Amino acid sequence: MAGCEGLTPRARRLLERVRAAEPEGDPLAFLVSGGCCGGTNPVLCRRSNLLEGFDVPLGEADGIGVYAHPEHARYLARDRFVIDAIDDARSDTFSLEIPHGGRFVLRELPPDLASEPG
Description:
Layout: E1 4-7, H1 9-21, E2 28-32, E3 42-46, E4 56-61, E5 64-68, H2 70-76, E6 81-87, E7 102-108
Parallel strand pairs: 1-6, 2-5
Antiparallel strand pairs: 2-3, 4-5, 6-7
């Protein structure tokens, strides 16, 4: 099964800023909703926001589970991807990184890079 291969260095730096500001407790999760507003951008949320037994696991990124809606997971599971970040993104999403000056995005890995560790 293909899926998430990890984080880019830029995404790791953004995640570090979020982790430094977020209280300990409920673990974090990435959710790729495939919805109309966020598209395929992963939403960083609390694990408790996921629907247990419904959202499909697609791997991990820096110790954080990556999940998708079942219908969307059918397509994502065919590809290998990494989570990247863009700076100063304007977004109306509730994703936890937005107040920290960035936005997580998916980047599909070319077939020749899909097996290389990130």
